[in-house]
Amino acid sequence: MDDQSTDVVPGTLDMLILKTLSLAPMHGFGIARRVEQISRDVFKVNPGSLLVALQRLERAGLLDAEWRETENGRRGRFYSLTRAGRKQLQVETAAWDRRVTAINRLLRAEG
Amino acid sequence: MLRQLRRGFTALLFPQRTDSDVDREIQHFVQQRARELEREGMSKEDAFRNATIEIGNVTTTREHVRSSGWEHGIDTLLGDVRYALRRLRRDPVFTIVTALTLAMGIGAATAIFSAVNPILFRALPYPGAERIVTITDRAQDGAPAEPTYGTFEELADRSRSFETLSATDAWRPSLTGTEEPERLEGLRVTASFFQTIGVLPAAGRNFDDAEDVTGAPRVAILSDRLAKRRFRDSAKVGTSIMLNGESYQVVGVMPPGFVDVMAPATDVWAPLQAQRRAPPASREWGHHYRIVGRLKAGVDVDAARRELASIASRPVAEFPRVVWADLGEGLLVRGLQEDVTAAARPALLAIVVAALALLLIACVNVANLLLARSARRRAEFALRAALGAGGRRLARQLLTESVILALIGGALGFLVANAGVGALVALSPAGWANAHVIRVDAAAFGFGVIVTTLVGLTVGLLPAVGASRADVRGGMQAVSRSVAGSRNAARGMLVVSEVALALVLLVGAGLLLRSLDKLFAVSPGIHPTQVLTMQVVDAAGRNRTDAERIAFYDQVVEAVRNIPGVTGAAVTSQLPLSGDLDGYGYSFAAFPDRQAGEDGAAMRYSVTPQYFQVMGIPLRRGRLLDARDNANAPQSFVISESLARRVFGEADPVGQNVRFGPDIDGSRPWGTVVGVVGDVKQESLASGNSAAFYVPASQWRWTDPVQSLVVRTSGDAAALTSAVKRAVWSVDRNKPITRVATMEQLIERTAVERRFASVIYATFAIAALLLAAVGLYGVISGRVAERTREIGIRSALGASRTDIVQGVLANGLMLTAAGVAIGIAGAFAASRLLETLLYGIARTDVATYASVIALLTGVAMLACWAPARRAAAVDPAITLRSD
Q1: ipTM computed for the complex
Q2: Which among B25, B36, B56 has CB closest to A28?
Q3: What digits encode the pLDDT tens for the residues B92-135?
Q4: Which CATH number fits domain A6-108: 3.30.2010.10, 2.30.42.10, 1.10.10.10, 1.10.357.10?
Q5: CA closest to B9 among chain A residues
Q6: DSSP characters for B536-559?
Q7: Mutation site for B-interface testing, chosen from A29, A36, A49 by largest number of B Cβ within 10 Å
Q8: What are the distances in angstroms from CA B497 to CA B452, B492, B794?
Q9: Considering the entire predicted model, what is its pTM?
């Protein structure tokens, strides 16, 4: 774990989870790992926050969850994206893009 | 959404399952991480330990996950409710007293407002009722007097303010030709009457103008209840009924539930058929009509009032007026609502004030109880705050407790209100408009609950705010003196206000009860026990002669006298204290220059000779009427004492010549006063005029078709009712009998409004006294508890038990005295409301105030006694050691 790692940007955890799950169904630990890997260990996912977020997203109908065998023969809770989840991901991605663009524009503004 | 609910309920119903799901997921997480670390080269144990550390406290995480769902709110709420119930159970005295206080306040206020609302304030059940006004004449002294038909005729022609203007005349026809003869409450009305009040017959048709002229065919409209009661469904429109021996065709039936609020008992209406432009000596110029009008749209009551005032002050030649209806004092124009509630208003307003006072006391008491409780719970709150409960969490807990208390109090209050409304309807004076529609009013109930709850909440929340801010250590160590002091001052003030309010109610109750006492101490002038009375109606056609009528009543008296248990019977044209009122002017030959009737009217009683013995009216001078005074003998009068004194002072009136009533025109020879009897109250016990002429029924100018039979019995008077009725009907099966009552019942009824107000005030005053005592007890107990240490030190230093008891009592007495002082001022102001209900007593009656203050102080001392004893029992050794 290098010292550069930080918690995920506040408010983006949901989006990151949705994005990760859009690639493949996964259990909680897998999601955390995947976020850390893809972000090249820039983001570190707090397990407590992750589980709360998963619970909330499932409640909201954006995720489905089921207990399934993992690759190493244990039982894990696998999450997958629902249709509503997919749509939500698009919405959040678009919103995020807009915000990032705006922030970049501000930061690069000269004079 | 559905999923949210389902998962929420699963979590609520099966908390273990949800927890174990979360636990397993956390487990899984830890395992995965441990394997990863192992792969990176850690030992198995280290890996597991590191993974566990990384994920943090499992319980915290679980709690975190758990508190994220909506069901968490409910879970907390249920926890709060459970906790609140536990706290309330642990403090049963507080809970019961608070709940009962709330129930009393909410219940009483709800019941009273439920009763008063429909009577005083609810719109009358007529469309556009606010545009209906009544017009009343004014007598010479400005007092309201019923208008004449002559006045109506003039107003109907000259006034432009009304859509329709109608006149009505009371009518009590006898219904015959059916199984039992019956006297009906009826009204003769001008054709536009139903348009004026805005309700038309549901079946059949309204009267038309052609039917409202003398000599027109007789038609009638029936109330739905009469149609159902007497004719089942046979009273179809178009059938005929016999009223006063004449045939009337039924042309309409009013809708079910229709009530004429001006005469609620009315069951039959017929056209007035008054004579137009009647001569002065006719019935049309008598003061016995009512005028009711519907204002045109856009004309308000004030405008109508101005127009009528100008008509009254400018007579025109086209409408000549008579002296006794010259409208010299103007006309009284009132909204219908105001008119019909005028009689009940003073009593009801006084009662509303009493109910408000009680509600206020209940609020104060609840505030007081909650403050006392929060003082006791300071340590608890400090502890919970120390353990991490936030201010909002504590506030929420207190809120839950208050709401639960309010719910319990409200539920009990509803029961109280229901019982109260029942009692009120049973108690309410007959003839109060709308009394039949009284039921528990949801709005009033809600108001009561909200007010008391708001007070509870506000007061209940104070300690929570305090606790969340308070220095936790201070709270846990001991009750800090200064805070306790200020709270004590607040509670002291609350108790003072309770005592003051209780005093106001007690004074009101005292004044009313003493008035009732004084009123019933007034002698009615008759001997009312064991006297049965009833009206017997000689319903026969127009061809009945006076001689036949007199013979009929004589036979009735004879038949009744033969009933075993009857010691005497007589008939009279009017019965004292029954609502009858029949007075005439008189002129004595000894004072020829005095105008007839100048010094007021005197009552006329046409009686059969035994009347005085049956009623127990004592002879003062001369003789009573007897068999000598028959139709052929010269006119004899017996007069009342007060009339004799009014006219002759101390001189003997026996033998004096007098003309009375219609005879003052001089068309008949003088009559002679043969005797003087004691005064009898006619209108009510409270009203004074007892000038009276007793005339032999056979000598009066006419024979009344409705007379009251009075029967003296040797046993219980009411028990003979059916025997007397049978005796009457043995003479003639077709004669209706009405208004059956013992003389004692009639007397009781004349004071029913005062009694109504008194019962309610007394009930409220006792409740207020109890509440004030409870409040005082609470405050003094609290003070003793807080001062235990001080008391211990004082007794260790040699203070005797008496000293300590006295100290505590003095404390309570000071609060009481402050309350009494404020209360006296309040009672003095509030008693103004009661003034019209008082009799024979000033509203500043010193004796009442003194006894009420004594009572209140006594109860206050009793309330302080227990805490004083507790203080005296403090063991100095234990107290001193405890710190």
Answers
A1: 0.76
A2: B25
A3: 888 888 888 888 888 888 888 887 777 776 667 788 888 999 99
A4: 1.10.10.10
A5: A59
A6: EE----TT--HHHHHHHHHHHHHH
A7: A29
A8: 16, 9, 31
A9: 0.65
